[in-house]
Specification:
With 103 residues, this protein is an alpha+beta fold. The chain has one domain. The model has no long low-confidence stretch (mean pLDDT 86).
């Protein structure tokens, strides 16, 4: 299952995303949260913390500046640019997904 949370700024997308992700994780489902926001704070809402969230944001900025290469596939994206959070939720901070795998 893939879930996307979209809406106007300040409408609670980050909070809603964190609650849904952690709830599904607590139920034993594998959850990967992708923070594509221009102001990425999902890591803080998930309970990953400010330091680790800042580290992931820095990695995304390095990609944007060309200092780092994009991940060629899903597994590489998560292993290189992701982190483990509470309740079995994994988080990656991304700018875009090129050539997404179907399914």
């Amino acid at each position: 299952m893939k879930v996307a949370v979209v809406g106007k700024g300040g409408s609670g997308k980050t909070t809603t995303s964190a609650i849904v992700a952690r709830t599904l994780g607590r139920r034993g489902l594998g959850v990967v949260a992708l923070d594509c926001d221009t102001n990425p704070n999902l890591g803080i809402s998930l309970g990953i913390g400010e330091v680790e969230t800042d580290r992931l944001v820095s990695m995304r900025e390095n990609l944007d500046e060309g200092a780092e290469q994009h991940a060629p596939g899903w597994n590489d994206l998560i292993s290189r640019f992701g982190t483990d959070g509470p309740d079995g939720v994994r988080l990656a901070v991304v700018t875009r997904i090129e050539n997404p795998e179907p399914g």
